[in-house]
Amino acid sequence: MKIWNLAVDNRVAVYLIFIIIVLFGYDSYVGLPREAAPDITIPYIITSIPYPGVAPADMEGLITQPLEKEYKTLKDVKEISSSSKEGLATVFIEFETGIDIDEALRRVRDKTNTARSNLPSDILEPIISEINFSEFPILYINVGGDLGLPRLKDIAKQLQDRIEGVQGVLSAEITGALEPEVQINCDVNRMNGYEISFSNVIDAISGEHINIPGGSLENGTTDYTVRIPGEFKDPQPIEDIIIKMRNGKPIYVRDVAEVRFSFEDRASYARLNDEQVISLPVKKRAGENLIRIADDVKAIITDFREQLPKGVTVEVTNDQSIMIRERVFELENSIMTGMFLVITVLFMFFGVKNAILISTAIPLSMLMGFIILSLMGITLNFVVLFALVLVLGVVVDDAVVVIENIYRHQQEYGENLIVAAKKATSEVAVPVTTATLTTIAAFLPLLFWPGVVGDFMSFLPLTLIATMLSSLFVGFVISPVQGSVFIDYRKEIAKAKYNLEHPSFWRKYNPFTMAYHWVDETFFPSAQGNYVRVLGWTLKNKKKTMAMTGGLLVLVFIVYGMFNHGVEFFPNTQPTQLTVMITTPPGTPLEVTNDITLQVERKLKSIEGYEDIEFRVTNVGSSNNPFDFGGSTISNKANYALSMYPKDERRQSSFVTLDEIRSEVGDVPGADVKVEVQQMGPPVGEAVNIEIAGEDFAQLRALSAAIQDHIRDIPGLVDLDDDYNAGKPEIQVIVNREMAALLEISTAQIGSTVRTAVNGNEAAKFRVGEDEYKITVRLREDQRQMPEDIENLNIT
Fold it and tell me: Among positive and negative, which fits the CA dihedral 402, 404, 406, 412?
């Protein structure tokens, strides 16, 4: 039984299928998560191990190399690379495309645990993560005002609790706030006078800050739990802790150190439009609707603003939902406009009734496509919407052929509605199927495009194939039923004769009828006659036709060679977000980097495009690389993110503004400044990347500088840079091992003492309300600024 015959014989069932497609298709469309770009799996696993205070060379030997050696035994690994910097070792593992990323994560964790026995025992917990674009922030909430950072942090925490309660929100972590800390600032002279070391202070505090269960007691009537609560509730008792007894007299913490209730050393500065702020980057869970989450979050912010103290502001920046909403609206508008134009063309050539019947194939095919996409877990993004625009005029082809052939069968053979629908559909089934499959076949190879780019672009052929197969179903099931019910040639001819003999004023002079008659009686016959004449001439002059065709082909190549503007992977559209990356020499203090960043901010105020910038977000001590973190190694970096007004509200093109920014910040003394543009399309990295490999870093640096000087003047080349880091200035403590052994002191003890004095050592933690305070032991700030300060430390 042929499917179109079955459909015509069971028209009621087809009507039900029609309704089901409409209802489920609309529900699927509404429920499809909206995202800017396809949610793809990046086959990268990054392992980062912090080890504060350790030099890059030691990080490589102690951590990076043992990890790489262990990771080389992993299966399906394409490439392993690493980065060793002060206090942080990072290993990047690129797997083959198509790997199960969850399984890869598990295997990397297992290998990391295996390697732990070969790593230093005092490293911090390894951070093993994947690159997941869906977990990048969808918007930033900035809390600012003149109340001070501690009060702003309290306000941000209230907002954080509400936002993280929104369905689909993964996290809204607070950044830019000062973390509370109890500082035990030791005086080296007093410690030496009392013969007390850092380890004595740390052991005394950690030995007192402890809760110990004592078991249980039973006296026959009552069962008691015995507990020794020793944890601190506030920092005041720390001063009274006895470190040791000397000549029968106690030595207290207050005798050798100052106990301060303060904050951790500032690691970053954050500003919004030149005002100090605390930021909450909001991340969503994978597969959730970004637009809905953003709307819910902004509704919470609107209500929260009414409760804010005077002088406190809450602003939303880098809102991805605005861009996605605009893209969805523009592409939906393109779809609706295209559908209108398609229907208009169909009306001109097929009449009102046939045009309406044929045009129903467009929404039905797309609604069926949405059902398939929803079942496949695909989000609604700009690649999917572009594919829908691409197939807009193609999905009607099957219905056009079927409906027109049904009409022809009734007109030429006088068959009744049912017979005409069955025979006409059967007659064109093979060419219709072939035409649809050839279109699908043209896009099918895109499914086998390898790598991350292939995963990104695969959504285009998937959407197209789903929609084209849906149009084939509509052409073989829905259209035959429509033709068997609504197309009646005899009635239409009789009605046309009656209207011709009894024309009303409206039928005679309305614009639709006049346009239709002009196309049907004037334009179409004239076009057909001209086409027949041209076709006749070409058939009579075959050699001239072939010569003209070949000449036209050559002319096209010549014109393209003369006027083409090169090749790029993705269209270069006006950016809406720009980021000025500022890098000062390694070892530059955070305050100096902040001063240079302020200088960049002042310089940009003089450009003409400054008024086109809606938000200016400054982060000093921060990097755009999500894995570029760890200790003081990032104090020499800052980024200045600029969000532009919508395109129709700008005074000039953002390309012009981009050139102005590059020209203005190109000569900032004491810093390397480059401008990054929001990347469109799949992640492909820099346009050109030159890699130089070798063992001698000094020679690599010289080669890099020579290559940069050689290519610097290439037209169109901007932001030329390398990733070589010369490292911070270093103070080396050389241990006299023989003398240390005679004094019964090991290198490990010396190293631990120096690190505690300079970097601090966490002795304990305690909570006050929702805040967690670290108790950190270190040397007084005025005694840890010069190299000779280290020489006076007491080891034991």
Answer: negative
- DSSP, residue by residue, 47-84: EEEE-TT--HHHHIIIIIHHHHHHHTT-TTEEEEEEEE
Residue 561, amino acid? G
**The pLDDT of residue 458:** 87
- The identity of residue 675, as a single letter, is V
127-130, strands of its sheet edge to edge? 77-85, 88-95, 44-50, 127-130
Of residues 19, 35, 775, the one with CA closest to residue 364: 19
CB 617 within 8 A of CB 144: no
Sort strands 771-779 and 180-186 into parallel, antiparallel or unpaired.
parallel
Nearest to 615 by CA among 346, 404, 371, 315: 315
Ramachandran assignment for 535, one of left (phi > 0), alpha (psi -120 to 50 degrees), beta (any other): alpha
Give the torsion sign (CA, 7, 9, 15, 17).
Answer: negative
| Contacts of 239 by beta carbon, 8 Å cutoff, 6+ apart | 252, 253, 254, 259
Angle, helix 459-473 to helix 361-375, in steps of 10 degrees:
130
Residues in the chain, how many?
Answer: 796
Distances (CA, A) of 628 to 54, 90, 176: 16, 9, 16
Count of beta carbons in the 10 Å neighbourhood of residue 335: 17
CA distance linking residue 709 with residue 703, whole number of Å: 10
Contact (CB, 8 A) for 387 and 467: yes
**Helix runs in 565-721, H state only:** 590-604, 654-664, 697-711
Angle at 578 between CA 573 and CA 584, to 5 degrees: 140
Looking at residues 204-219, what average pLDDT do you find? Answer: 80
In this structure, the number of other CB atoms found within 10 A of the CB of residue 262 comes to 15
- From the list 252, 332, 278, the residue with the least C-alpha distance to 32 is 332
The H-assigned helical ranges of 632-783 are 654-664, 697-711, 737-742, 747-759
Q: Sign of the CA dihedral 191, 196, 202, 206? A: negative
Q: Residue range 23-28: average pLDDT?
A: 92
3-state SS, residue 631: helix
pLDDT band at 473, cuts 50/70/90? very high
Closest CA to 139 of 117, 113, 108, 171: 171
> For 354-366, how does the pLDDT look when each residue is reduced to its tens digit (9 = 90+)?
778 888 888 899 8
Token output for 241 = 């802790």
The secondary structure of 570-610 as a DSSP string is S--PPPSEEEEEEEPPTT--HHHHHHHHHHHHHHHTTSGGG
DSSP character for 474? I
Instruction: Give residue 33's identity as a one-letter amino acid code.
Output: P
Rounded CA-CA distance 527/522 in Å is 9
The three-state secondary structure class of 5 is helix
Q: Which two tokens stand for residue 539?
A: 């058939």
- The DSSP code sequence of 163-186 is HTTSTTEEEE--BSPPPEEEEEEE
Of the two residues 430 and 221, the one the predictor is more confident about is: 430
Of the candidates 274, 279, 318, the one whose C-alpha atom is nearest the C-alpha of residue 597 is: 274
Sign, CA dihedral 681-682-684-686, equals positive
Q: Tokens standing for 385? A: 């919407």
Q: Specify whether the CB–CB gap between 285 and 168 falls below 8 A.
A: yes
β-strands 127-130, 44-50 pairing: antiparallel
The per-residue pLDDT for range 294-313, each reduced to its tens digit, is 999 999 999 998 888 888 88
Confirm if 32 and 373 have CB atoms less than 8 A apart: yes
| Per-residue pLDDT tens over the stretch 499-544 | 656 666 555 666 766 666 676 677 777 877 888 899 999 999 999 9
